[in-house]
């Protein structure tokens, strides 16, 4: 079963890498031709050209092995305390993401509980929460950083606030749905037991919302990471993967950009994966066999 | 819209108006500096006086949004239809699509700006990448949502693949497709605005926000955010309206009329 599933993915990934190499050759050839022309070299073969394409200093599209080499250099061979180390920057981003995610999901869950319990809030607030999903919230990021600066709040906090802001909405919407998911029959049963509101909440609504909880946590943590990275772009002095992206794009260091991008992707996939593992453990304990 | 639908709008409208009034009072009463939070009236004032600039920014950004959205969603749907016939491709591509949707794709913005230049084309490219995968994943799920009974019926009619696709499976997939279309409106706006943080000709909403923040003219930033919010909501609203017209038969709409 597992091999059955892994095989197609492996083959597709291999195909994508092959396409990537071909694409790198095509995209870098004009640039490399110019280099040769400037150096006065005309005696190169097609194989020379292709090989040079894949090992340029600042290629238009770096080849996968160049990115791996850059990752190896900046992750494994540089001390994590150095500013040249990708681990250093990834840790900054991770801090902001986790802090923001913690704040955002707590707020989101709290608000969802209030909305489910108070009719007034549901009617007045919920449409705004839904509408806020259609607004490109990320546009607020640069401003939040500046405003918090006015209060002498710098460093990790402003970025965590943006991360929290982004992760908060999906969590609220998902949890409202989850806390509402028990069907009327089950709610009626609780009523026949003379259950109080708190008991209904703890014994029925909260457990029933578990699948929604994990789904919205996954979206929330991914959104928090995006928020942290974008916030770092708008305030790049403090480092972080977003700052690496910006620095790379200033100096045309394409390999550095791609390496930072892969690091961010790996971070995001790891965080989402961890929540997925927690999801599986909890749902097995709760008896939802999947 | 019926009278009941209008009365449903009253609480959120009151709530919104209350927030605006409170905001205005707090800013005036406590003398909050403009740099931290301008009053709604100041933002409105700024908005009215900067309409030409805001319109130019809007025109610049919307090009990238619409072009990227159309290409990204179109390509996602097309690829979904193509891989729908192959179990193998589905099994290989879907996990990747799910993985990609959890990645911070906005990060490709600097690369796209390098490849396609400062103008709207690079923003469109970011939007294409951001919108492609949600559409792919949703459309594949949608195409397999037609029930076995309905498929058997089509078979008894002697329908060929294309007929089944056009008359049964695509219509059945529409709710899923529209779901992705709606999610993608926000993603498209975010992609275009963030891509403008990385370089743009001196016009565009993302450019305006990042430069005006630098000049500390926060009221202009808020005015731009108002434009972005209105654009995003209108974009979503248009898609939702089309969805209502096209998938009127779906349970989620039928229930509402009853």
Q: How would a crystallographer describe the biggest sheet of chain B?
A: none
State the order of secondary-structure elements of chain B, H for helix, E for strand. HHHHHHHHHHH
* CATH architectural category of the largest domain in chain A: Orthogonal Bundle
Total number of beta strands of chain A: 0
User: What amount of the residues of chain B lies in strands?
Assistant: under 5%
Give a short account of the largest sheet of chain A: none
> If classified by CATH, what would the architecture of chain B be?
Orthogonal Bundle
Q: Give the tally of structural domains of chain B.
A: 1
Describe this structure in words.
The complex is a heterodimer of chains A (290) and B (258). Chain A has twelve helices and no strands. Chain A has helices at 2-39, 46-53, 64-76, 86-117, 119-132, 141-150, 156-179, 184-192, 197-208, 210-234, 241-251, 254-286. Chain A is elongated. Chain B is built from eleven helices and no strands. In chain B, helix 3 packs antiparallel against helix 8 (161-197), helix 8 (161-197) packs parallel to helix 9 and helix 8 (161-197) runs antiparallel to helix 10.
Task: Give a concise summary.
The complex is a heterodimer of chains A (290) and B (258). Chain A has 290 residues and is mainly alpha-helical. In chain A, 79% of the residues lie in helices and 0% in strands.
Q: What topology emerges from the helices and strands here?
A:
The complex is a heterodimer of chains A (290) and B (258).
Chain A: H1 2-39, H2 46-53, H3 64-76, H4 86-117, H5 119-132, H6 141-150, H7 156-179, H8 184-192, H9 197-208, H10 210-234, H11 241-251, H12 254-286
Chain B: H1 3-29, H2 40-49, H3 51-83, H4 87-100, H5 109-116, H6 120-143, H7 148-156, H8 161-197, H9 205-214, H10 218-246, H11 251-257
Helix pairs in contact in B: 2-10, 3-6, 3-8, 3-9, 4-6, 5-6, 5-8, 6-8, 8-9, 8-10, 9-10
């Amino acid at each position: 079963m597992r091999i059955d599933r892994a095989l197609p993915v492996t083959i597709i990934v291999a195909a994508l890498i092959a396409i990537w190499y071909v694409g790198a050759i095509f995209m870098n050839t004009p640039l490399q031709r110019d280099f040769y022309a400037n150096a006065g070299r005309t005696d190169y073969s097609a194989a020379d050209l292709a090989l040079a394409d894949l090992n340029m200093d600042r290629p238009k599209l770096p080849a996968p092995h160049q990115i791996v080499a850059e990752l190896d250099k900046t992750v494994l061979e540089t001390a994590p305390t150095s500013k040249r180390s990708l681990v250093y920057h990834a840790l900054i981003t991770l801090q902001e993401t986790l802090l923001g995610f913690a704040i955002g999901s707590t707020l989101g869950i709290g608000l969802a509980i209030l909305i489910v319990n108070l009719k007034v809030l549901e009617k007045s607030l919920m449409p705004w929460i839904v509408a806020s999903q259609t607004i490109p919230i990320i546009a607020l990021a640069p401003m939040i950083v500046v405003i918090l600066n006015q209060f002498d709040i710098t460093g990790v906090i402003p970025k965590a606030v943006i991360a929290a802001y982004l992760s908060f909405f999906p969590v609220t919407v998902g949890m409202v749905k989850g806390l509402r998911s028990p069907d009327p029959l089950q709610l009626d049963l609780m009523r026949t037991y003379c259950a109080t509101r708190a008991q209904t909440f703890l014994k029925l609504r909260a457990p029933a919302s578990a699948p929604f909880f994990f789904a919205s946590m996954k979206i929330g943590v991914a959104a928090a990471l995006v928020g942290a990275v974008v916030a770092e772009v708008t305030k790049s002095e403090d480092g972080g993967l977003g700052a690496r992206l910006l620095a790379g794009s200033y100096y045309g260091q394409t390999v550095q950009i791609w390496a930072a991008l892969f690091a961010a992707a790996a971070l995001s996939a790891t965080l989402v994966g961890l929540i997925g593992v927690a999801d599986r453990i909890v749902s097995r304990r709760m008896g939802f066999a999947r | 819209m019926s009278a009941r639908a209008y009365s449903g709008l009253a609480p959120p409208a009151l709530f919104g108006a209350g927030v605006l009034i409170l905001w205005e009072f707090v800013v005036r009463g406590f003398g909050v500096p403009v740099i931290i939070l301008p009053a709604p009236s100041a933002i409105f004032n700024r908005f009215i006086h900067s309409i030409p600039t805001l319109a130019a920014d809007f025109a610049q950004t919307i090009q990238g949004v619409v072009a990227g959205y159309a290409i990204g969603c179109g390509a996602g749907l097309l690829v979904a239809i193509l891989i729908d016939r192959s179990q193998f491709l589905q099994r290989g591509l879907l996990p990747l699509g799910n993985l990609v949707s959890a990645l911070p794709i906005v990060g490709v913005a600097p690369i796209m700006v390098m490849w396609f230049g400062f103008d709207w084309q690079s923003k469109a490219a970011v939007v294409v990448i951001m919108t492609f995968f949600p559409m792919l994943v949703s459309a594949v799920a949608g195409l397999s949502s037609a029930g076995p009974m309905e498929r058997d019926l089509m078979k008894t009619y002697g329908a060929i693949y294309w007929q089944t696709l056009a008359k049964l499976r695509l219509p059945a997939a529409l709710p899923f497709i529209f779901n992705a279309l709606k999610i993608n409106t926000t993603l498209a706006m975010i992609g275009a605005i963030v891509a403008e943080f990385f370089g743009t000709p001196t016009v565009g909403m993302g450019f305006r926000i990042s430069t005006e923040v630098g000049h500390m003219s926060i009221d202009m930033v808020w005015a731009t955010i108002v434009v972005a919010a209105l654009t995003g909501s209108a974009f979503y609203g248009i898609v939702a309206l089309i969805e209502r017209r096209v998938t009127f038969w779906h349970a989620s709409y039928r229930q509402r009329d009853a």
